[in-house]
Amino acid sequence: MMATRPGEVFHTDIGVIPIVSFRGYRYFIDFVDEYTRYVFTFLMRKCDEVYHVYEDLRRKVRDKIKYIYTVVSEYDDEIKRVQSDNDKEYEKLARIIVKYGTRFRFTQVYTPQQTGMAERRICMVM
Question: Which SUPFAM superfamilies does the annotation name (predicted)?
Answer without folding.
Answer: Ribonuclease H-like
